[in-house]
Amino acid sequence: MTLTNKDILKEALDNYSITPKKSLGQNFVIDKNVIKKICDCADLSKEDQVLEIGPGTGALTLSLAEKVTHVTAIEKDRRLMPLLLDLTKETKNISVVHSDILDFSIPFKKYKVIANLPYYVTSPIIKKFLEEYFPPEMLVLTVQREVAERIIAKPPKMSLLSVSVQFYADAKIISHISKNSFWPPPSIESSIIKITPKKNSFDKAFKEDFFRILRKGFSHPRKQILTNFQLDREKKSGVDFTKREIICNLIKKSNVDARKRPESLNIDQWKSLTKNLSKII
Ligand code: SAM
């Protein structure tokens, strides 16, 4: 039985004495069309190994299991375990694990991540999977609409989040979802986003340099990048004009206008800044 009917869902939660917890982002999907859209865009087949984050009341979990070889569903809320185990006991290709996804070691090399994400922890979860030694083939996630739009942003609307995700992956919004597709309804709209990791050949040292330069470049998003790269030095020891000129020249060498704000730079420009500035910043 799939709990996509609001009244049946409420009754099932009552039977297990569960009240949805806001702090765990518990808005359960009650719209079969949303489940279908998620499954369709994940392009699922019987070859697929799926990791689901936060199965909740299992509506998405059961649909996924019909289409793939195996679903591993990681749920943080212990209260949901009896309900989930009862719902999935007849379905041999679902394993429900009680764990925080951020503490869970991924046992697969080839897998897809699918989730209606708990919104309070969206960024750390995306970061975890994109930085994995074996990242997933794709992530199909329901996130806050505003976060989805920030992830796929282009210059001049880049942020630390969009550059970080786009460094590792291609991302696109598949569909927007109304609040009424969930119970209890969240206060904001959601979107389904598909994130496909790129085959990156950058070594660990380059990645560390890239994210150090990026954080520094975005330390004050509304300031010019030259100012951001210069800031600590000025605070410590007054303006060092020689260093300022060196930084300015290296920024120029990276094909970047030093007066631009970080929001207006693209990924290639950040890579170029990393190559040219990482020895001195
Ligand atoms: N997948 C279900 C659905 O679509 O109806 C539930 C989605 S609900 C938005 C988020 C789920 O993630 C909840 O079941 C919540 O308990 C669980 N959750 C919250 N934080 C988690 C974490 N850190 N690790 C694993 N699950 C988590």
How do you describe this structure in short?
The protein is an alpha/beta fold and 281 residues long. The protein is 40% helix and 17% strand.
Describe the structure.
There is one protein chain. The chain is built from 11 helices and 9 strands. The model has no long low-confidence stretch (mean pLDDT 94). The radius of gyration is 22 Å and the shape is elongated. It is of the alpha/beta class. β5 (112-116), α5 and β6 form a beta-alpha-beta unit. Strands 4-3-2-5-6-9-7 form a 7-stranded mixed sheet. A two-stranded antiparallel ribbon has the order 1-8. S-adenosylmethionine is lined by residues 24-29, 53-57, 59-60, 74-77, 100-102, 116, 118, 121.
Task: Please write out the topology.
Elements: H1 6-15, E1 28-29, H2 32-41, E2 49-53, H3 59-67, E3 70-75, H4 81-88, E4 94-98, E5 112-116, H5 122-130, E6 138-144, H6 145-151, H7 160-168, E7 169-177, E8 182-183, E9 190-197, H8 204-217, H9 225-237, H10 241-253, H11 267-277
Parallel strand pairs: 2-3, 2-5, 3-4, 5-6
Antiparallel strand pairs: 1-8, 6-9, 7-9
Helix pairs in contact: 5-7, 8-11, 10-11
Bound molecules: S-adenosylmethionine.
S-adenosylmethionine (SAM) binds at residues 24-29, 53-57, 59-60, 74-77, 100-102, 116, 118, 121.
